[in-house]
Here is the input.
Amino acid sequence: MNIREDEDIKIAPKTFKPNRPPLDSGEEAARQFLEQKELGNIEKARELGASFAQAVINLEDGPVAERGKKRTQRELHNQIVLYSYIVNRVIADHSPNSIVAQSCLGVFYKTVEAASAELFSHISDMAAFSLYVLCERSKNRTDDEIGVIYAELCDFDGREEIIAEGNAFYRRIYAYCAEKIGGVEFK
Here is the structure.
């Protein structure tokens, strides 16, 4: 054997790592999900999603109920839509990452759907929901505009007491949901 024949052979260093192709987006998402699961964040997110669902399922007498308040079916429907929007917004604003957020929202929607097809149709009213999203993305947005949209959806355009009621509901439910998610110790 000629020594010159071995010149093209390279010796791997002690810290040799084989070249691996980069993970595709699906593999990366699966890796991140497993990481969040190992940290216990997925289970916490699922519990939080179920808790948010129970609050809307028990809207008449649960932790977010307005005791003694008479509402029309249209008002109740729009409070449920607004509640759903707020849950989505709080989760987006306060979740440590999108995997935790999606886990929480997935359980929220599945729990509501399992409890009541009618209630699920309320929280799935994308036309009304979209108005709140558009308001959120508006450059001139103020939280008081939520009440204006709420009043319009309830067919009480411009009625100050309904606008104030919508704004108060928004602030109260946002604070409730933010407190709930703030009490979860994500890692």
Remarks:
- The mean pLDDT is 86.
- DSSP finds eight helices and no strands in the chain.
- The chain has one domain: 37-182.
